[in-house]
Write a sequence for this structure.
């Protein structure tokens, strides 16, 4: 939660919170950032595994299986709350819908796209991989890389934050933050396979 909140402050509204630091703790104002939450979770997991002398990648591989399902249900929550909705689309688009407080125009239900791809499809992929004799860290790296890829393309249907709009060329902040995720995930996969003493994934 701390990572999610600080991620939102740093990535999405730094100038405002720099001028109004007391509002950082007012979680009813502003929001949370998945990317910040992921960073916070990784740090907390690393500290926990160091303290308990558990291999980091072993716990991380288990965590992303649960995390992908959590993402799927979390995005359904966004949909129910009519928040983080999509961009305006054609009324003829089969999935187009009108969201409360988002004007009369039909929009993409981008929350459901994210729920399916970043959540449930991700879980199926990771679960399938967990049945294979892969090295520890493979699931963790795959999760980070695929989340970055899925989120990057789905952002083309998601309404950018009003106070940011596009931050670099025609890319939203979410897409900019996904670039390093893709590279980091790929790097982790390469790293664990070059590390000779990596154990095999053993998730039952």
């Amino acid at each position: 939660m701390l990572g999610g909140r600080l991620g939102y402050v740093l990535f999405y509204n730094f100038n405002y919170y720099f001028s109004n630091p007391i509002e950082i703790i007012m979680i009813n104002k502003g929001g949370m950032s998945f990317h910040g939450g992921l960073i916070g979770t990784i740090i907390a997991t690393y500290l926990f595994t160091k303290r308990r002398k558990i291999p980091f990648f072993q716990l991380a591989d288990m965590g992303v299986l649960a995390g992908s399902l959590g993402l799927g249900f979390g995005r359904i929550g966004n949909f129910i709350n009519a928040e983080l909705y999509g961009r305006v689309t054609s009324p003829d688009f089969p999935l187009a819908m009108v969201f409360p407080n988002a004007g009369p125009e039909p929009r993409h239900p981008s929350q459901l796209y994210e729920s399916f791809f970043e959540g449930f499809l991700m879980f199926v992929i990771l679960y399938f991989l967990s049945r294979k004799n892969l090295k520890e860290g493979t699931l963790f790296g795959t999760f980070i890389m695929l989340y970055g890829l899925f989120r990057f393309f789905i952002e083309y249907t998601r309404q950018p934050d009003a106070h940011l709009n596009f931050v670099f060329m025609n890319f939203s902040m979410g897409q900019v933050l996904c670039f390093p995720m893709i590279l980091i995930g790929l790097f982790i996969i390469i790293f664990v396979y070059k590390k000779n003493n990596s154990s095999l994934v053993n998730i039952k």
Notes: Residues 56-80 form the longest helix (25 residues). The chain has two domains: 1-54, 55-204. Helices lie at 2-12, 14-19, 34-52, 56-80, 110-130, 138-154, 173-194. The chain has a mean pLDDT of 88.
